[in-house]
C-alpha cells in the first residue's frame, strides 16, 4: 500500500507535466481510487484522467473513441511508471515501441518528456518530480525519438550483400542447368556439390546460413530434421537405459528384502520368509512393483519417478523408496475408508475430462471465507492434520480414475478456484497449501498433468513466487494462472466447452435432461463493435426447439426471436435485449416452420467467441392432449 499511496499522491503533477502544451499550460488532471478500500487486494484500481482538451474519462468504462483512448492510456501509463520510479528507483527502463499507437504530436510529447527527465545528474540527486537520472533504452521507429536521443544504435539487414548473394545463386543455377543438358553426370551431383566456393576454405557464419537458405526443399528439410531425429533417438536410448537400470534396482531390492530398509536380522527365519513374500507382492497405486511379474503398468509407474528426477536413476530409486516408506507410515492404504469430515465434501469435486482425457478435479476455496467453517477446519493442530489427510484421501480417490496401462490416461488435471477465497492473512490455509504441494510433489510424482489456478488475486501471485522455491522446476512448469477476466478463455484451451461446467463459462450441467457431452457446440466469432445473428432453422411445425449459448468474455447484449417462414405470420419476441452475463438456455414450441434468430451485439474493442448448440424434438401440444382426453371421456359417457 505504500507504493499505491505514493503514486496516488504524486500522479497528478506528473500527469500535468506530460500533458501540458502552449495552449493548455496547466495540463490535465489524473488520480487513482481503490474500488474497495476495506479489501483492496481482492479488487481493482480505478484510473481517472481528464486530459487538457477533453471531458473526464474513467478507463474501465471503455466508452470513448478507440484511438483517443489509446493516446490517453499511454500517457497515463508513462505517468504511473515515472511516479513509481520516484518511489522505488530502477537502474534504467527499456521502452519497446511504446509509441506504436501514438500520433506524431503525442510521440513528440513523450520523447520530450523522457528527454527532460534524463538530463545530466546522478540518480541519488533526483528531485521529487522525477528530475534527473531517468535512464532509458527506447526501441522506436519514430523520428521524434531519434532527434531527442543521446545515442543511436541501428539494427538493419545488409540488403546489398543479400541481393548480391541471391544474384550469384541464380546465375550458378542457370549454369548448372546448362551443364546438365551437356553432361548427364553433372545432373547427378547435389546442389551443394555444384555450388562453387569462391572464398576458398574460409567461410563466415552468414555464408553458412546463406547456403542453407538456398538449398532445395528436400535437402533443407533433411539438413534440419536429421540432427533432431538423431538427437531424439539418442535421448530415447538414454531413457530406455535409465528405465532398464531402475527395473534392475527395484527387482534386486524386492528380492533382497531391502526396498523398505535393511532387514531385521534378529527375527526368525519363518518371519523373514514371510516378510520376503509380502515384499514380493508390494504395489503402488494398484500396480505391482516387481518387474518380473510382467505387469504393463510397472514401467509406467517407474517412468513417473524417472521423469520427476530427470532420469537420474539413483535419485529416482531413492524417491520411490521414500514414497513407499511414507505410505506405510501414513497408512494410505486405509485412508479411503476413513470419515474425515462432511464439511469438506463441497470443496472438491470431479467433473468430466479435458481434451486429452485427463480427469478434472476442481477445488473451491470460496466457502472458507465463512469464519465458522474456517475455524472448524483449521482451528487446531489436529484439525489441520485432518485437512491434510483429507487432501491425500481425495488424491487417492482420483488415482482410482486413472489407467496405468499402455495408451491409458495416467495423470489428472487440478483446477483451483480462488473466487471469494480468504485473503493473505489466513496463514493456516497458506501454510497447508504449501505443505500439500510439497507432499504431492514428493509422493505422487507426475500424477498431476496441469495445475490451473483460476480467479487468482494479486496477493496469490506473490505467495506463489515465495512458495515456488520449494518446488522443482518440472512442477513449476505445470502451473497455469488465470485472472477473473480470463477464466473461461484459459480453461477452454484445455477443456472442450461441452465438458466445462456452466459456472466456468462452459455448457456442462449436472444431470442435464436435454444435452450430453456428445452434443457438440458450434462456434461463431463476433468482431469488435459489430452485431452478428445466429439462425436455428425449424423445418416443420409441431417441434420444440431447445438451445443454449455462452460467450467467452461476456460483455455483449443478447436477443431472441422466432421468425416464421410465412410472411403473413408475426414475429415472436422470445427474449428482449439484455446484457449477457452467464450461459443461457431457452426453448420454444413452433407450430409452423421458421427459424430462431439470436442477435449478439458486441460493443467492446475485442472480438468475442460464441459457443452454442441446439436440438429439436417432436412435441404433442398440451391442448391437443387435453382435447383428446375430453373426447374419450365424452365417448364413455355416451356409451354408458
From TrEMBL:
Name of this chain's protein: Sec14p-like phosphatidylinositol transfer family protein
SMART domains, per database record: CRAL_TRIO_N, SEC14
Single Gene Ontology MF annotation: lipid binding
Biased composition, class Basic and acidic residues, residue ranges: 163-176, 186-195
InterPro entries: CRAL-TRIO_dom, CRAL-TRIO_dom_sf, CRAL/TRIO_N_dom, CRAL/TRIO_N_dom_sf, GOLD_dom, P-loop_NTPase, PATL, PATL1-6_C_GOLD
Family assignment from sequence similarity: Belongs to the patellin family.
Pfam families documented for this protein: CRAL_TRIO, CRAL_TRIO_N, GOLD_PATL1_C
Alphabetical GO biological process terms: cell division
Residues in GOLD domain copies: 519-624
CRAL-TRIO domain sequence ranges: 337-512
Record carries keyword Cytoplasm: yes
Stretches for region Disordered: 163-210
GO CC terms of this entry: cytoplasm; membrane
Keywords: Cell cycle, Cell division, Cytoplasm, Lipid-binding, Membrane, Transport
Amino acid at each position: 500500500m505504500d507504493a499505491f499511496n505514493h503514486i496516488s499522491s504524486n500522479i497528478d503533477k506528473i500527469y500535468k507535466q506530460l500533458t501540458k502544451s502552449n495552449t493548455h499550460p496547466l495540463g490535465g488532471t489524473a488520480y487513482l481510487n481503490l474500488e474497495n478500500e476495506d479489501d483492496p487486494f481482492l479488487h481493482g484500481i480505478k484510473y481517472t484522467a481528464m486530459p487538457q482538451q477533453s471531458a473526464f474519462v474513467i478507463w474501465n468504462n471503455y466508452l470513448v473513441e478507440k484511438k483517443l483512448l489509446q493516446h490517453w492510456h499511454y500517457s497515463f501509463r508513462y505517468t504511473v511508471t515515472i511516479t513509481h520510479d520516484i518511489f522505488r528507483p530502477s537502474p534504467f527502463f527499456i521502452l519497446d515501441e511504446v509509441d506504436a499507437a501514438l500520433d506524431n504530436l503525442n510521440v513528440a510529447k513523450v520523447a520530450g518528456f523522457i528527454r527532460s527527465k534524463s538530463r545530466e545528474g546522478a540518480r541519488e540527486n533526483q528531485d521529487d518530480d522525477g528530475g534527473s537520472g531517468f535512464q532509458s533504452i527506447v526501441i522506436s521507429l519514430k523520428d521524434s525519438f531519434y532527434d531527442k536521443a543521446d545515442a543511436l544504435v541501428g539494427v538493419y539487414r545488409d540488403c546489398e550483400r543479400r541481393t548480391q548473394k541471391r544474384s550469384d545463386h541464380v546465375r550458378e543455377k542457370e549454369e548448372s542447368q546448362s551443364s546438365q543438358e551437356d553432361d548427364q553426370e553433372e545432373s547427378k551431383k547435389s546442389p551443394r556439390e555444384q555450388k562453387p566456393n569462391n572464398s576458398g576454405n574460409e567461410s563466415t557464419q552468414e555464408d553458412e546460413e546463406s547456403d542453407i537458405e538456398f538449398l532445395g526443399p528436400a535437402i533443407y528439410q533433411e539438413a534440419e530434421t536429421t540432427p533432431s531425429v538423431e538427437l531424439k533417438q539418442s535421448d530415447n536410448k538414454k531413457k530406455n537405459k535409465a528405465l532398464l537400470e531402475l527395473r534392475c534396482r527395484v527387482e534386486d531390492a524386492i528380492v533382497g528384502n531391502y526396498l523398505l530398509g535393511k532387514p531385521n536380522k534378529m527375527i526368525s527365519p519363518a518371519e523373514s520368509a514371510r516378510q520376503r513374500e509380502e515384499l514380493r507382492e508390494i504395489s503402488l497405486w494398484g500396480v505391482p512393483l516387481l518387474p518380473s511379474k510382467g505387469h504393463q503398468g510397472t514401467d509406467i509407474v517407474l517412468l513417473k519417478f524417472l521423469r520427476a528426477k530427470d532420469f537420474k536413476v539413483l535419485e529416482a530409486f531413492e524417491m520411490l523408496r521414500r514414497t513407499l516408506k511414507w505410505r506405510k507410515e501414513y497408512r494410505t492404504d486405509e485412508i479411503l475408508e476413513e470419515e474425515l469430515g462432511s464439511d469438506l465434501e463441497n470443496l472438491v469435486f470431479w467433473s468430466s475430462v479435458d481434451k486429452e482425457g485427463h480427469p478434472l478435479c476442481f477445488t473451491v476455496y470460496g466457502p472458507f471465507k465463512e469464519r465458522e467453517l474456517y475455524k472448524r477446519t483449521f482451528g487446531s493442530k489436529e484439525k489441520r492434520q485432518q485437512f491434510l489427510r483429507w487432501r491425500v484421501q481425495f488424491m487417492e480417490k482420483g488415482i482410482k480414475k486413472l489407467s496405468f496401462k499402455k495408451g491409458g490416461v495416467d495423470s489428472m488435471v487440478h483446477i483451483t478456484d480462488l473466487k471469494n477465497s480468504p485473503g493473505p492473512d489466513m496463514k493456516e490455509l497458506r501454510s497447508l497449501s504449501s505443505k500439500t504441494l510439497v507432499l504431492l510433489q514428493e509422493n505422487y510424482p507426475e500424477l498431476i498433468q496441469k495445475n490451473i489456478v483460476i480467479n487468482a488475486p494479486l496477493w496469490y501471485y506473490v505467495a506463489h513466487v515465495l512458495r515456488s522455491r520449494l518446488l522443482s522446476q518440472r512442477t513449476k512448469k505445470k502451473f497455469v494462472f488465470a485472472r477473473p477476466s480470463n477464466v473461461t478463455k484459459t480453461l477452454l484451451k484445455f477443456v472442450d466447452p461441452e465438458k466445462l461446467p456452466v459456472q466456468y463459462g462452459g455448457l456442462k450441467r449436472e444431470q442435464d435432461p436435454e444435452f450430453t457431452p456428445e452434443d457438440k457446440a458450434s462456434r461463431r466469432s463476433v468482431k469488435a463493435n459489430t452485431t452478428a445473428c445466429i439462425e436455428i432453422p425449424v423445418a416443420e411445425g409441431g417441434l420444440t426447439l431447445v438451445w443454449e449459448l455462452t460467450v467467452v468474455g461476456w460483455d455483449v447484449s443478447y436477443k431472441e426471436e422466432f421468425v416464421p417462414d410465412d410472411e403473413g405470420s408475426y414475429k415472436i419476441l422470445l427474449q428482449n435485449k439484455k446484457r449477457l452475463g452467464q450461459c443461457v438456455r431457452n426453448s420454444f414450441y413452433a407450430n409452423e416452420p421458421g427459424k430462431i434468430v439470436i442477435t449478439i451485439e458486441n460493443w467492446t474493442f475485442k472480438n468475442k467467441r460464441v459457443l452454442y448448440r441446439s436440438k429439436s424434438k417432436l412435441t404433442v401440444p398440451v391442448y391437443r392432449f387435453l382435447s383428446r382426453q375430453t373426447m374419450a371421456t365424452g365417448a364413455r359417457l355416451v356409451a354408458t
